């Protein structure tokens, strides 16, 4: 089993020695090259390597990079980690949580039960990438994706990556693009349909030993002062809390797909959140901010990019796999990585490129997920409608069935869109 980390390549000669499929000093080869070692890319790499596929995983950052995220692991993430055989190492480090507290603009609160956990992405993603390497994938850090290579027919035949002045061609039968929410790589691969993100969010880590146990649940807070967004406080390991604000529908789309940011400032929303939500104010007062507050874009609803082209598939948030309404996407990123890997493994076992079948199988799997994304898109109306949040919380405090339905949203057994449908609203008073 090979275990190779390239963080700072000393020389291309050393690389040629360590990578057996190298064709020359500035060209590498493998069966599948994956760009992006987040949850999507590492999950796909682990599955492919386990099936004996020669896979090369590449990221622009070194292992243990700090991804801006709320770090919440909802049931779909637990399931994906279980499929990957990595749930135990993740849970050994994560802060386990049993409820999400939903707090409405008028201060009402309901605690929704769920199988939840919080682990900073720095650690989660390192466990995932190491999991891929342990399975036999090769990993190259500090290389930036610059564009795709095409054969004479226009089929993608690899990628160009860059480290400093050094440019390398990686020839591959398949490319998986797992580059997350930034549209740049999608544009370079000719697959971007919408440059503007679907939402934006900002988070910070606060170390506050005196508050450990006092905020035991993940908390999501809606308040008029942070409309049309919401705030959160998630208890993390090591006496820390992840605190942040997020806004869906952050950009107006223009005809050229570029989009402009609406009149909102995440830093101002964050300050308003800390001013109006007492536990956030206490956290900031009693705790110590570790590092900076950082913002990042999100891409929702399986929209904004083509999912594939001959020789290439897009996985994870680059394909818009994050849920609208909640902004959760770690689980679905891993899930789509594994779906693409499954499509490739099938073709690999038959030793065929099988472009049409591989892509069709993957896209069909994504299409099956689409209705669920549409439900979240509908439910997203809740974020901009404070009275509806208050009503839902007020009813859930009195109805075990509604509370169960809200818990079912976390575990994907009930339809979040139903909460805002006419029938759903009527049921609020009947359940
Ligand atoms: C503030 C915030 C809070 C969030 N909270 C949650 C939450 O609590 N729970 C949840 O489930 N989801 C949450 N999300 C969403 C979640 O972060 C994403 O759904 C998830 O990270 C998607 O995983 P991915 O592997 O597709 O992409 P990413 O995790 O973004 O990974 C992409 C990788 O590609 C690399 N890359 C990008 N461009 C290049 C390039 N040109 N060359 C080489 N490498 C490149 C990056 O370095 C990165 O490692 C949140 C998002 C934000 C912004």
Account of the protein in words:
- This protein is an alpha/beta fold.
- It has 2 domains: 5-65 and 124-195 and 302-378, FAD/NAD(P)-binding domain (3-Layer(bba) Sandwich), CATH 3.50.50; 73-120 and 198-298, D-Amino Acid Oxidase, Chain A, domain 2.
- It has 13 helices and 19 strands.
- Strands 1, 2, 3, 7, 8, 9, 10, 18 and 19 form a 9-stranded mixed sheet that branches. It has an 8-stranded mixed sheet with strand order 4-6-5-12-13-14-11-17.
- α2 packs parallel to α9, α3 packs parallel to α9 (330-349) and α9 (330-349) runs antiparallel to α10.
- It is globular.
- The termini are far apart.
- It binds flavin-adenine dinucleotide.
- Flavin-adenine dinucleotide is lined by residues 35-41, 58-61, 65, 67-72, 77, 144-145, 178-182, 185, 201, 203, 244, 246, 296, 298, 316-317, 322, 327-331, 333.
How do you describe this structure in short?
35% of the residues lie in helices and 27% in strands.
């Amino acid at each position: 089993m090979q275990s190779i980390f390239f963080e700072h390549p000393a020389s291309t000669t050393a690389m040629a020695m360590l990578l057996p499929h190298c064709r020359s000093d500035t060209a590498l080869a493998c069966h599948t090259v994956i760009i992006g070692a987040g949850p999507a890319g590492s999950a796909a790499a682990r599955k492919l390597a386990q099936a004996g596929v020669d896979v090369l995983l590449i990221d622009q950052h070194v292992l243990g990079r700090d991804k801006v995220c709320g770090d919440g692991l909802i049931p779909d993430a637990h399931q994906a980690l279980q499929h990957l055989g990595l749930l135990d190492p993740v849970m050994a480090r994560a802060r386990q949580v049993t409820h999400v507290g939903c707090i409405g603009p008028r201060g009402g609160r309901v605690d929704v039960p769920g199988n939840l956990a919080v682990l900073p992405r720095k650690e989660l993603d390192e466990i995932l990438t190491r999991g891929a390497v342990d399975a036999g994938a090769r990993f190259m850090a500090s290389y930036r994706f610059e564009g795709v290579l095409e054969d004479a027919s226009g089929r993608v035949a690899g990628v160009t990556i860059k480290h400093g002045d050094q440019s390398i061609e990686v020839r591959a039968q398949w490319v998986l693009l797992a580059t997350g929410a930034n549209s740049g790589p999608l544009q370079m691969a000719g697959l971007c349909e919408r440059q503007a993100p679907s939402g934006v969010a900002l988070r910070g880590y606060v170390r506050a030993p005196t508050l450990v146990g006092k905020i035991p649940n993940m908390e999501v807070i809606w308040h008029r002062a942070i409309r049309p967004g919401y705030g959160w406080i998630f208890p993390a390991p090591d006496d820390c809390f992840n605190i942040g604000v997020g806004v869906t529908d952050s950009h107006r789309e223009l005809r050229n797909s570029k989009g402009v940011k609406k009149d909102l400032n995440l830093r101002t929303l964050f300050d308003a959140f800390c001013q109006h939500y007492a536990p956030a104010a206490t956290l900031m007062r009693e705790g110590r901010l570790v590092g900076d507050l950082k913002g990042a874009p999100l891409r929702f609803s399986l929209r904004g990019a083509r999912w594939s082209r001959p020789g290439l598939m897009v996985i994870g948030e680059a394909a818009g796999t994050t849920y609208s309404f909640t902004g959760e996407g770690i689980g679905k990123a891993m899930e789509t990585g594994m779906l693409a890997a499954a499509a490739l493994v099938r073709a690999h076992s038959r030793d065929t490129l099988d472009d049409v079948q591989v892509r069709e199988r993957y896209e069909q799997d994504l299409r099956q997920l689409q209705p669920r994304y549409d439900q979240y898109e509908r439910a997203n109306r809740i974020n901009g409608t404070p009275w509806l949040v208050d009503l839902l919380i007020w009813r859930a405090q009195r109805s075990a069935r509604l509370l169960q339905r809200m818990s079912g949203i976390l575990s994907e057994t009930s339809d979040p869109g139903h909460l805002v449908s006419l029938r759903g609203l009527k049921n609020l008073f009947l359940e």
